[in-house]
Structure formats: C-alpha cells, structure tokens
Design brief:
The complex is a heterodimer of chains A (90) and B (910).
Chain A lengths: L1 H21 L1 H4 L5 H20 L5 H32 L1
Chain B lengths: L1 H23 L1 H5 L2 H26 L3 H46 L3 E6 L4 E4 L1 H7 L17 H4 L1 H6 L7 E8 L5 E11 L8 E8 L1 H23 L2 E6 L5 E4 L2 H6 L11 H4 L8 H9 L4 E9 L5 E12 L5 E10 L1 H23 L2 E7 L4 E4 L1 H7 L5 H5 L3 H4 L5 H14 L4 E8 L5 E12 L5 E10 L1 H15 L9 H16 L5 E9 L1 H8 L1 H17 L6 E6 L2 E6 L4 H17 L1 E4 L2 E4 L1 E9 L6 H17 L5 E3 L5 H22 L2 E10 L8 E10 L5 E2 L1 H10 L3 H18 L1 H6 E8 L7 H11 L9 E6 H6 L1 H14 L2 E7 L7 H5 L4 E4 L1 H5 L5 H16 L3 E4 L5 H10 L3 E3 L7 E2 H14 L1
Parallel strand pairs in B: 21-22, 24-26, 26-27, 27-28, 28-29, 29-30, 30-31
Antiparallel strand pairs in B: 1-2, 1-5, 3-4, 4-5, 6-7, 6-10, 8-9, 9-10, 11-12, 11-15, 13-14, 14-15, 16-18, 16-21, 17-18, 19-20, 23-24, 23-31, 23-32, 24-25
Classes of the chains: A mainly alpha (90), B alpha+beta (910).
Chain lengths: 90, 910
C-alpha cells in the first residue's frame, strides 16, 4: 500500500511537472517562482525516494527522503516570504 | 533516525512559521485563491511533517499511514498553488491589456467611438468629443446624432447576409464648436456580437481639415501655376538626367511657332541654332557639373523666319537619395530686350563717337551719390589727360579763377533757384602750363519727381581762342589799327564820360586836338606807305610823351587828340606847346630822305559849362583849323567869344546841315536859262542846273551858304553825286523834254574831278539810254581845273570819250594863263560875271571879255557870258561876238519843273 501511494505521488508529481511545462509562460516572471519550483522539485525527489525505499538501503533512503521534504518545506517558506513581499508592494 | 527526526522537526517548524506568516502578512490579507492554496499546501505539508515526526518519535507505524496520505495529497495542493499562480498571472495580463486598451482608446490622436446598433453611443474617447465640440456626458449613452450613420449601421444585415463586413471609409464635414467646420475622415467597421443586438459600430474619425486645406491650397496653387504658365510670357521646362527635354510648357509655341512636343527628347544645345551671347562651353560645363545657371541667352530661328533670342535659367534637381534626376527651369523671349540692347549699344557707340568727336568736354554729376564723370576731352581741355593721379585729385572749383568763382557759384544758385533753362558761365580755368584758359560751361540740372535735383550735367568748351579774338576785335573796335592808339569812337565815348564828370563839377579836363601840317606832302611824294609808317612812328613817339593818365587817340587821317584828365587850360596849353616843339624835332626817314612834320593844335577846356562832347570836339577842331590858318605849327587855345573860331564853328554847323539835308533829301534842283547873245531863239533850249537846299523849316538856302563848308568838310563829292543822279532821274522821267533839250549844264566841284563816285553816277545815268551824252555839259571852275590839272584832264577826256561836253566856269578869275586852255579839252568858256557886269562902264573889263572871247573862238571854244542882267549888256556882248549869255536878263533860277513848264509854254506861244 505504502509503495502504491509513493508511486501514485510520483505519477501525480510528474503530472504536475507537465502542467508546469505547459504553463511556463504564465509562471515566468512571477515573484519567487524559482523557489516554488525548487520546493516542488525537492518534494518530487522526496516522493521518488519514498517510492525507492522498498528497493533497498531503506534507512539511508528514508533519511534522504525526510531531508528532501524538509528542504522542500524550507523552499516553500522562502517562496511564501517572497510572495508576501510582492503582494504587499502591489 | 536522528537526522530524519531533525529534518522533520525543522520542516514542521518552518511550515508552522510560514503558515503563521501567511495568515498575518499581506499575503494573507489578500485572501485570494492563492492565499488559500498556499495555506492548504502548508497545512498538508505540516500534517505530513507532524505525522512523520510522531512516527519517528514514537516508532508507531500507524502514523505511517497518516504520513502517506498527506504525501499523497501534497501533489494536488502543489498543483492548486501552481494553478492559482497561473490564474493570477492571467488576470494580471488581462488587466494590463485592458489598461492598455483604455489608455489607447482615450489617448488616441483620432476620435474613436462605439455606436450601438440602436444609434446609442456606447463609448467615446476624448478626441472624438473634442472634434465634435461636446462634453463626453452629452454623448456617451445618448443617441449619436453628430453626423448620420444610417448607412454604416444598416451594414449588419448585409454583413450577416455575407455582403458587407469590411471597413468603410468616407469623408464628412461637421460643424464644430464655435461655428467652424471640420473635415473628418471616417472609418467604420461593424463588430458583430453573438446576436444582432449585441453588435456595435466602431467609428474612427480623423481630423483631415488641415490636409484638406493643404490639398485645396495645393490644387489652387497648381491651377494658379498652370494659369501662369499658360498666360505668362515665360515657359517652363524640365530635362531628364540625360539633359534632354522631357517637358516644355505650351507657351514656347507662341514664341517659336513650333509645338513644345517637338523639343521633347532634344538637348538644350540642339535647340539653339544661332549665335549665342554666352559661352556655350561654359554653359555645357555648368550642366555637366550639375550647377545652376541663370540667364543663358541663345538664339534660334522661329518658324516665321525671324531670329528669336531666348534667355533661360535652370537648376539641377535631385532625388531624395541625392541622385541627379535632371534640370528644371524657365525661359523667356528676350528678343525685344536684345534688340533694345543692340540699339542702346549703337546709341552708346554713337555717343562715344560724339564724345570723342566733339571738342567739348562733358561732365555728369550724380548728386545723390556725389559722383562726377568727366569725358576724355574734358581732361584734354584742362591739360591733365593721361594723369590719373591728377584726375583723381581734381576739384573743379579749385581750378576756377578766384575772380570768376563768385560769379560762377551765384550763377549756379540762380539756375537752381529759378529753374532757368540752362546754366551758362564763361570763366577762367587754370591750365597746368601756367596759363588761364577761357572756358564756357553750359549745363542744366535735372530733377526727380519730387522736384529734387538729382543730376547736373553739361559741357565745357574751350573758348580761349574765341575770347582772344573777341578781345582782339574789341581792341580793334576801340583802337586804331595803324598806330595802336585809341580810335575816334572810343575817344568820343571817353570824352562823353569826361564831359559828364566835368558838368557835375567834380573835375576839369582839357582836350588837345592836333592836325599834322604838310603830311599830304609826304603822302604825295613818298606814297601812302611812307605816310602810314610815319603815322605809326609818330603814334609811338607821342605815346612816350603822354602821361599814362591821359588818353591819346588817333581821330583819323593825320589828326590826333589828347584828352588830359584833371588838367587846367593853362596846363593843357603848356603841354600842347611842348608837344608841338617836340614834334618839330621829330625826324622821319624814308628812302634815305629825312622828313620833318609840324602840327597845329587846338586846345579846349572841358568845364562845368561845356554843353556836350560834340561841342568840345567842334571847338577843338575849329581851334585847330584856326591854328592852321594862322600859319600852321601853332597852338590855338579856344576861348569863349573867339570870332574866328565862331566862324569856323559856323562852317562846321553848315557842313552838318548839308549832311542832314543829304540824308533827309532836302536838296532841290533849280535851273537858269542860257541863250544866244543875239536875238532870242526859242528853238534852242539850254540851261544850267543849280542846287538849292531847303532848311529844316522849309526855307530856301542859297549855295554860297552851304557849298564852301561842304567843300571844306568833304561833302561836295556826295553833293555832286546827288545833283548828277537827281538830274538824270528828272530827265529820264521826262523823255519828251529831253527831245526838246538843246544842252543841260551841270556844275561839278574841283574835288569831284576824277572821283569814282561821280563817274559812276554819270555812267549809270547815261546807260539808261534816255539822255544823249551830247546834250550834257559839265562845268568845272577854272581854279579847280588848274589846281588838279592832270586829274581834270583825265576826267574830261573820259567824259568826252562818252560824248559829253565840258565848260570852264568862272573863266578869268583864276591866276592861270591861257596856255592851260590848250591842255583842257573844254567846249565852252564861261566868262566870269565880275567882268561882264562892268563892260558898259569899265573899258578894261570890256577888253578882258573881248580878249577871252576872241581867244576862246581862236581855240575853237564857244563862250558864255555870266551875270547878264540888262539888255544893254546883252547887246554889247552880242556886238563883241560872245556866243551865249546867262543871267537875270533871261530869267532868275527857278525849280526845274517850273522852268521846263514855262519854257514849253513860251515855245508854244512863239
């Protein structure tokens, strides 16, 4: 079950990548969008690590997974700060 | 596990912090979809971190499921965040687009309006409102009626039918605020919505008023240019880059008679076929260098045969890129100008020839520019030709003689002030050779329309020669040509002045009248040349001895006079005596002969009592004659009451009266009959013509009163001429009398013997052919004939040669011997009356008469006894044998007409 959720998350994450690709013209230029995309990319890495956890090196992969999610959260926080600053000035 | 725990803890803390931040910051205040998506994402992420933290902390695997669920949900919320970002970005873009549209709509330089299909104005921009001159609120939302749009608004039906969905354009004229009119270029296009009612008309109005005006002005300008081109004397042309005509206006045909089209394609040089005044090579060089040119003149024959002169100007034209594309210019017919120019050239040439040909210097002073021009002859006259420095420094005024300058300037002012026709002044002009030229300046001012003098021009003539001649003539008119002394006319003029001065009492003068003695001897013996030379030398000699203040003159012949100014009679007498003595010492040498000459001098004082100049001269002349009569070489001073002088003056007055009678024709012919001494014979009409004078009052004057003065003062020859002429006139007027005439005797004076005038008068009378010469007898006194024996003989021979007779008058009174009779070819001897009167009482006189009669008869001459007053004397004379008698016994002298009438009556009675 866990691995199923991991695979579904990866698939959804890749779907999200496809959406980003198609909407790149709208996204470009938005404030701190690179932090947001970075956060999404780290999350996607976390999902991939989570899906790979059952293959081997479970502890290491799990640790990396938690680190990726934590980094993703930090990137999201930074984006929130950027977006907040931008919105407050407009 | 510690790393994982720490990571999750950091993630949870960060998520919570971010969540809180989003909620409290402006991010959260926007409360839009993005905020919500972000919060949900943070919430799910925080849930994942929390579940994972609990699982690691507690080791309870049941939290693993919660974690998986949160992980599973995370992609959805990430996509939600991304989607809201995309949505936000799209909204922003729309808003920006709308903003741009509005801005464009409002700020467009053209008017834009959206008109609904029901004619309602949906939207209208500021420019449109300005164009219509109405506020927006008066237009927007209201029915649009600024100009009709029915045609455009009916289009939707056709558009739906597929007929018309394209933009439409038209120009309309609308009234604007203030009453003016605007031209609008209207573009419309229908925007069809989902249904017919949702469509609207987009109207774009552009103000084309100014372009319209510009276009109209351009059309007007073009029309005007076309009109000008058609009516102007000039024509315009255009050349291509190959310098061949591409266009010429039609006017050229009027000038050259050739259609403009015939020149198209030909070069300018080909068109010219005659002599050019300008440099053709230079013109071609201008064209080649693409330089503009002006007034290039060439000629060509017109179709009518006459040569036409054309002046053309042009400028190169270039494209916007700077490429040469040809020439454009205008040309005009300058034939009249060229002919006028030629005429002016000819005129100038003639003027130059005239200027150089004349001997008059010309000047032309342009007063406005103060420039003065002098002709070459001017410089030649004043002697500085070929000297530019002197000419540049020349100032006319400085060269005028100081004495003449005031007259010259006043003449100029007078001419300018009075506007006289011509200014004329004769002045002296300095010449570089040191002399003064006499020049005549003649000029005139010309005035402009305002009466202001603008030029002063004229001519300068060198009249030095003429002036010298005039001076010479004036000198000759007032001086004697032989001696150079003042002549009689000038002397009398000065004498009149002196008398006037004396009569005013301001001064007393004196006159010495001198007549040379025996001058005639020198003339007769050595000839007139010697006499003239002596007079000339004597004139110089007298000049040296006369004071400069006195006036020495030669009055004529051998007469001189000295007018002594401010001199008393005593001083004059003293001077006259000294002069007489000096002249006595004068020696004149001629042909190795030395001659002396004496002088008789009459001296007269000129005082306040002197009546006039003629009286002074008369008195001086009389005094001089008196001096001569007193023995010559004397001085006679005229005094009031001088008897001799009075007589002399009386004679002079008689001479003047004779002169006056001659001039006024107051002489009359009388005659006294001559008849045979024997019994009266009426068949032989014989008489002597006598002359009488009528005085100013008509009284008869006997000849013994006027003949002696006439002889003394040289009037007798003229008197004789008058008698001869009058006698001939009368005889010729009475030819019947001439036929009855036996003999007509006419007296001539001794002075007239040989006088050319008398001979001419006789010849003229005879040549009329009425009076036969044998019926004329001229009487000459014995004394006169003997005194001028040779001349008398020539005269008598001449007249006898013509057939006339001669009588020797007053025979016996002279001292001549009878031997003279042999030398004188006379026909009659007239025995002097003094002898005839006493023949009855004085045997001596009877003997004298008899002897004269006998000798006369012996010499073949007939005798006439004068002064026969009684019939006894007549009988006695007849006894002696005298042929004819004359005297009161026959009749007293009476007018010729009366005598002839009486004679004719007596003859008829007999």
């Amino acid at each position: 079950m866990t691995s199923d959720f991991g695979l579904i998350s990866v698939i959804l994450g890749l779907g999200g990548v496809a959406y980003l690709w198609t909407s790149r013209s709208h996204l470009s230029g938005f404030c701190g969008i690179s932090w947001l995309i970075a956060g999404y990319s780290l999350t996607l890495i976390g999902w991939l690590l989570s899906a790979c956890e059952m293959v081997g090196f479970q502890t290491v992969v799990n640790t990396l997974e938690h680190m990726a999610f934590a980094a993703s959260t930090l990137a999201l926080v930074i984006w929130c700060d950027k977006a907040g600053s931008y919105l407050s000035s407009h | 596990m510690t790393v994982s725990l720490a990571s999750e803890l950091v993630g949870l803390g960060a998520t919570v912090t971010a969540f809180s931040y989003v909620l409290v910051s402006s991010f959260g205040h926007r409360r839009g979809p993005l905020t919500a998506a972000a919060l949900l994402l943070l919430l799910v992420t925080a849930g994942g971190h929390f579940a994972s933290l609990i699982e690691i902390w507690s080791g309870d695997a049941s939290f693993r499921g919660l974690e998986d669920y949160t992980r599973f949900l995370q992609p959805l919320f990430w996509l939600m965040v991304f989607h809201t970002v995309v949505q936000a970005r799209t909204g922003e873009a729309l808003e920006a687009s709308d903003q741009r549209f509005r801005s464009t709509f409002e700020r467009a330089p053209v008017g834009i309006a959206h008109i609904a299909l029901d004619h309602r104005c949906l939207r209208i921009n500021e420019r449109f409102c300005d164009l219509l001159g109405k506020p927006r609120m008066a237009l927007q939302g209201k029915r649009f009626d600024a100009f009709p749009l029915e045609e455009e608004l009916s289009a939707p039906r056709r558009a739906i039918a597929g007929d018309d969905d394209v933009a439409r354009y038209r120009e309309i004229r609308v009234r604007c605020k203030g009453g003016g009119a605007l031209w609008l270029n209207l573009s419309t296009r229908l925007v069809i919505g989902a249904g017919l009612s949702e469509g609207y008309l987009v109207v774009i109005a552009e103000d084309i008023t100014e372009p319209k005006h510009v276009a109209r002005a351009l059309r007007h300008s073009e029309a005007r240019l076309r009109d000008f081109t058609e009516v102007a004397s000039d024509w315009v042309w255009e050349m291509g880059p190959d310098l061949r005509y591409t266009y010429l206006s039609e006017r050229i045909e009027d000038v050259l008679g050739v259609p403009a089209s015939s020149f198209v394609g030909r070069s300018g040089v080909e068109v010219a076929d005659g002599d050019e005044t300008a440099d053709v090579c230079g013109h071609i060089a201008d064209l080649g260098a693409r330089r503009p040119f002006r007034e290039f003149v060439y000629s060509r024959m017109s179709a009518g045969g006459g040569r036409k002169w054309i002046s053309t100007s042009g400028k190169p034209i270039f494209s916007a890129d700077g490429d040469f594309i040809g020439y454009r210019g205008a040309a005009r017919d300058v034939t009249a100008e060229m002919e006028a120019l030629e005429s002016v050239k000819q005129s100038e040439l003639r003027f130059k020839l005239a200027v150089h040909g004349t001997r008059e210097g010309l000047w032309d002073w342009d007063i406005l520019s103060d420039r003065i021009w002098f002709s070459t002859v001017w410089w030649e006259i004043i002697g500085i030709e070929g000297d530019p420095d002197a000419q540049n420094a020349y100032s006319w005024r400085e060269y005028i003689h100081p004495d003449d300058l005031p007259k010259f300037q006043s003449g100029l002012k007078e001419h300018l002030r009075r506007g006289t026709e011509v200014f004329e002044s004769t002045i002296r002009h300095w010449h570089p050779d040191g002399r003064w030229l006499w020049v005549e300046a003649r000029g005139r001012y010309t005035f402009d329309g305002n009466g202001r003098a603008e030029r002063f021009s004229g001519r300068l003539t060198d009249v030095t020669a003429r002036h010298d001649l005039e001076e010479k003539l004036a000198f000759q008119a007032t001086h004697d040509s032989l001696t150079g002394l003042v002549n009689r006319g000038e002397f009398e003029r000065r004498l009149v002045q002196a008398v006037a001065e004396a009569r005013s009492g301001s001064a007393q003068h004196a006159l010495c009248y001198m007549d040379l003695d025996q001058f005639k001897v020198l003339n007769d013996t050595s000839g007139h040349a010697a006499g003239d030379e002596m007079l000339r030398q004597l004139g110089d000699w007298l000049s040296d001895r006369t004071q400069d203040s006195d006036l020495l003159a030669r009055l004529g012949g051998d007469e001189f006079a000295v007018l002594m100014f401010r001199a008393s009679l005593q001083e004059a007498e003293q001077f006259a005596r000294a002069l007489r003595d000096a002249i006595a010492r004068f020696r004149f040498c001629w042909d190795d002969q030395s001659y002396t000459v004496g002088v008789s001098v009459g001296v007269v004082a000129i005082t306040a009592d002197t009546p006039d100049a003629m009286a002074v001269l008369g008195a001086a002349d009389a005094a001089c004659y008196t001096a001569k009569d007193e023995g010559r070489n004397r001085v006679h001073v005229y005094h009031e009451g001088d008897i001799e002088l009075a007589r002399r003056q009386g004679e002079m007055r008689w001479a003047a009266r004779v002169q006056s009678a001659l001039d006024d024709d107051r002489l009359r012919l009388y005659c006294q009959p001559i008849s045979r001494a024997g019994p009266a014979d009426n068949t032989d009409l014989h008489y002597e013509v006598l002359v009488r004078m009528m005085d100013e009052s008509g009284n008869l004057v006997m000849p013994n009163s006027f003949l002696p003065p006439a002889e003394r003062y040289g009037l007798v020859t003229r008197l004789d001429c008058w008698v001869v002429t009058a006698a001939f006139d009368w005889l010729c007027d009475n030819p019947s009398h001439v036929r009855e005439l036996g003999l007509c005797s006419i007296n001539l004076s001794g002075v007239s013997l040989g006088a050319r005038e008398v001979l001419t008068a006789i010849d003229r009378g005879l040549s009329r052919g009425i009076v036969p010469p044998e019926k004329l007898c001229f009487e000459v006194t014995e004394t006169a004939a003997v005194r001028n024996l040779a001349r008398a003989r020539r005269f008598m021979k001449t007249l006898r040669g013509w057939g006339c007779l001669f009588a020797l008058d007053d025979f016996g009174t002279g001292v001549s011997s009878f031997s003279y009779l042999k030398n004188l070819p006379v026909d009659f001897l007239k025995i002097d009356g003094e002898f005839v009167r006493g023949i009855l009482t004085d045997p001596t006189q009877l003997a004298l008469v008899r002897s004269i009669n006998d000798i006369g008869h012996v010499m073949g001459k007939r005798t006439i006894a004068e002064f026969v007053e009684t019939s006894e004397v007549r009988e006695k004379l007849a006894d002696i044998g005298v042929d004819y008698i004359q005297g009161h016994v026959l009749g007293r002298p009476r007018p010729l007409e009366h005598f002839v009438t009486a004679a004719r009556a007596s003859k008829s009675a007999g």
